[in-house]
Amino acid sequence: MNRDPLAHVRDLFDLDDDVVYLDGNSLGAPPKNVAERVQEVVKHQWGSRLIRSWSEGWWEAPERVGNRVGRLVGAAAGQVVVCDSTSVNLFKALMAAVRSTDRSEIVVDAGTFPTDGYIAQSVAELTGLALRPADPDRLDLRDTTAAVLLNHVDYRTGRLLDMAALTEQAHAVGAKVVWDLCHSAGVLPIELDALGVDLAVGCTYKFLNGGPGSPAFIYVPTRAQQGFHQPLTGWTGHQVPFAMQPDYTPDPGVSRARVGTPDILSMLALDAALDVWDQVDLQDVRAKGLALTGHFMDLVRDLPGIEVLTPADEWRGHQVSLRHVRAGALMDALIERNIIGDFRAPDVLRFGFAPLYNTFEDADRAATTLKELL
Ligand SMILES: *Cc1c(COP(=O)(O)O)cnc(C)c1O
């Protein structure tokens, strides 16, 4: 049965066949070429070339790798830069989105990942705007709404929001929308340019497999770049950083989203990890993600004490979340048996299905082990 056109892609990853790894939505597995590339960067680029490497590709790496990420999220070149963490990029994006507004509120997805909510709180405090958490089904946007911050995929339930409809809703009242793509970048087709999204951020260590703490990305569309005034005016976002001028003039393009010296080792590990996508079609990745998560949900839906939190329709990302009163103990027992997912307090088991390396057998083994434990 050839239901998996991506089966061969698993061979590109360094994975132990005894382990069922279902946590690629927290920390993606390493593609095999990453170790070799990092060694080359350390030994040759850093070791032999030393500081000359800054002018031999390092300085522009944030924009160059940004363009590669951009291709995966529907952004034409020159609009994505890889830098900092998602938390920091959220701060830059939200501050820029509400700067000089005469509107009075920021709306945040009520189920947001905590850091997004904390950063939004801080932006609200610094700018004097109100922060209103709202259910994405009833955002109730108004002409007083300056910006809306939404998570494309809910980290807790795996629900996927309708980016087209919600972006339109925000624009209908003249509000800006900031999308957090942490759980969707690299696993489903995203059309930032086509949908007219105002700003977006995302991390690269989840489904993009960039490695622990690899730098995040930020999308600033060309039309918005001139008006994008971010609060962290570091020297690498300057128009002419090496002129060492006393005053700040932002780069005219997306580089104005940069702050300080880029983390080259992590950046180039991510660069290597992105090679995998040169060989796959995102439509296939999405189709396999839906098939894998659907198959797993069918296997576990009727297990005793289990409630499936992830939507059964196509409005889901590539994780399955199950509620069980003893979720924490169950996940510990699963991990002891080499089935690695994660637990989110108080009662959620999460299983991330990375279509590039997870198999239908992984889903079967995870479901069978869970059934035995119950
Ligand atoms: C993983 C995740 C983050 C992580 O932010 P960091 O700054 O990298 O720690 C932020 N937001 C969402 C929605 C996430 O899923």
UniProtKB/TrEMBL annotation:
Pathway: Cofactor biosynthesis; NAD(+) biosynthesis; quinolinate from L-kynurenine: step 2/3; Amino-acid degradation; L-kynurenine degradation; L-alanine and anthranilate from L-kynurenine: step 1/1. GO terms for biological process: anthranilate metabolic process; L-kynurenine catabolic process; L-tryptophan catabolic process to kynurenine; NAD+ biosynthetic process; quinolinate biosynthetic process. It is an enzyme of class 3 (hydrolase). It catalyses: 3-hydroxy-L-kynurenine + H2O = 3-hydroxyanthranilate + L-alanine + H(+); L-kynurenine + H2O = anthranilate + L-alanine + H(+). Keywords: Hydrolase, Pyridine nucleotide biosynthesis, Pyridoxal phosphate. GO terms for molecular function: kynureninase activity; pyridoxal phosphate binding. The keyword Hydrolase applies. Pyridoxal 5'-phosphate binds at residues 86-87, 113-116, 180, 183, 205, 235, 261. It comes from the Bacteria. GO terms for cellular component: cytoplasm. HAMAP family: Kynureninase. Belongs to the kynureninase family. Catalyzes the cleavage of L-kynurenine (L-Kyn) and L-3-hydroxykynurenine (L-3OHKyn) into anthranilic acid (AA) and 3-hydroxyanthranilic acid (3-OHAA), respectively. This is Kynureninase. It comes from Saccharothrix variisporea.
